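User: Hi! I'm working on a homework problem where we have to compare a predicted structure to a textbook description. Could you give me the structure for the chain below?
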Amino acid sequence: MGAFAGFYGGWLDSLLSRIGDIFFSIPYILAAIVVMSVFSTNRNVFTLAFAIGGFAWASTARVVRAEVLRVRQADFVTASRALGKSRFGTLVSHVVPNAIAPLLVITTISLAAAVVAEATLAFLGVGLGSNVMSWGNDISAAQQSLRVAPMALIYPSIILTVTVLAFILLGELIRDALDPESEGPPMNATSREPLLSVRDLHVAFESQSGSREVLHSVTFDIFPGETIAIVGESGSGKSTTASAIIQLLPGTGHVTSGSIMLGDDDLTLYNQAQMANIRGREIGYVPQDPMSNLNPVWSIGFQVKEAVRANGIASGKKEIEARAVEVLKQAGLADAEKRMHQYPHQFSGGMRQRALIGIGLAADPKLLIADEPTSALDVTVQRVILDHMAKLTREKGTSVLLITHDLGLAAERAERIIVMKDGEIVESGPSRLILENPQHPYTQRLVAAAPSIASQRIQAVAEDRGVKSLDDLADATPTLRVRGLTKDYKIRQGSFRSEPFRAVDAVSFDIPRGKTLALVGESGSGKSTVAKMVLKLEDPTSGAIEIDGVDVSGLSRKQTFDLRRRMQPVFQDPYGSLDPMRNIGNTIAEPLEIHKVGDSASRRARVNELLDQVSLPRALASRYANELSGGQRQRVAIARALALKPDIVILDEAVSALDVLVQDQILKLLADLQSELGLTYLFITHDLAVVRVAADLVCVMERGKVVEQGTVDEIFANPTQEYTKRLLDAIPGASIPLGGGVADGL
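Assistant: Happy to help. Predicted structure tokens:
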């Protein structure tokens, strides 16, 4: 019941959740006593199972629903549906395998609880009878002769306790065995006295093959009121450094040597209870992945209020509510009062990240560690968030450790930049000096690949695309035509009440064959909703979508299935778009299997061909997603999208989560594939610097409406709408000249 409620959502979720709440409100032990008393003349194993499980299931269903709801949000689940797989098939083949580890844990815990419940019923005399072997009967009998033979009570009590602990331990062992990422690391001065001082820090991860050191002699200082940025490609050690500071290293990671001094205290000597008092109050933390760090079963408002309450920022229901609304407003959510009642899955990725940033800043910490805090945000919201961080720095002496792959943002917001590669610091110094005159070859490569709007490299590439104005495309036949597209949602307000919300309002655009249209705008502007409707993952309230002149709204189920061969998505998160339980070969071959294309031999050949196309070694086919870097995962996602030889590819923030070097490689790959295969791209993005490189046409959206559209040259050179001008002006680092031999390389 929990699995169906979590996966299908909507009215079914509401109905099943209310039923579960009714059963959950009844103490299951009390209910079991009543049931066993009613069936006193006909007690058997089935009666006992019904008595215990008939009411105890509700708590298990809640946990199952939460876990399924978490997995349901993953991009690989959406990708499976976009391939044409049925919802039930997606539930069985993708959701259940990825939720199975925690579900097995709750199953073993439930079995342990059932053992305790049976013993309790037997002890109270409402079990299967005194002649049946039961620890409850043994304890009850021992109680009668406690003074004569006290050990008779201790033995069954110990055995019962050990049995319960064994079930729980079994669940933990199963979870660790089934977790594909349980081993190894992820591949990914105003004052003379520093606030934080890191000295000779070494971090290692343990695995079956031994210890592997991932940080080597990392040393730096952060002074009160200072903002420093750590930059580098995926796997360079940026996030590992941040996690080590607050003792939140994943898996088997641990500090092997070195010190992390916060004032006079060495945090490497703190236990978890002591660190709990440091996190939030002294050191705030904003993680990168918003969906993994927000509980899907609680509203956004509840989670913000929990952070406010836990850090002692406010007391009293009204004061906590007011502070929570203020926190969300400071994070850039103008309609915070309404958003408080919504759940994470009802937020866009950028809006979820804003909520996390608000939670991180809620307690006004001395140091804020922000791990890619704006990678999922549009440029205008970036400015709101980063301006707020700067305001804290000025007014309260708050220091900021910014982990980012955006060199423009680093130069604009940080006083100093630390460049990391392979777990070591290769260069550090004042921000402008590092970007304008990088010394280390690796830093020069980073700067050369940075998609700054001021970069001469990007200007040259944009001019080579050959589309100056809409007149150049007047005779081109649109492959994809959208007319008057509108989407309304009903937002639940509780007690089965809801109110309408218009996410997309009369959107229209055309994409000629072989061209790229970039759909840009702030988070929540409706970009991704348009993409889902084009992919037929959402049904429009009104409007039309035409593919080569055919309106797709009236297609039958089989015709829709056939249409999916022509349209495929590539999603934002390279870590969430691939099923971790499937190897790379099976992941790429899945579209071929769903559409029954070829036999196993031809599918293997097609997988090898696709790996070649995206410049990945064929040996990766037998490996799993957790063994690949972010850039490699995104190449796999592109290969999967190309498996059925589609005409149209929907790129939903496909490069925003990647560091600049990998981003540059993926953009070049997409351009080469478009030229080679004649692909048509719908590019959903908030990064206007990337638009300058990748797109022919631009469509600007604000609050669900298209406010301006034209060619890249027209929009960038002469924007007519104030909103578009604000988007362009807000690009971080746009006015900073970059070094690294950019111009020389043209």
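For your comparison, note the following. Confidence is low (pLDDT under 50) at residues 181-191, 453-464, 740-746. DSSP finds 28 helices and 20 strands in the chain. Good luck with the assignment!
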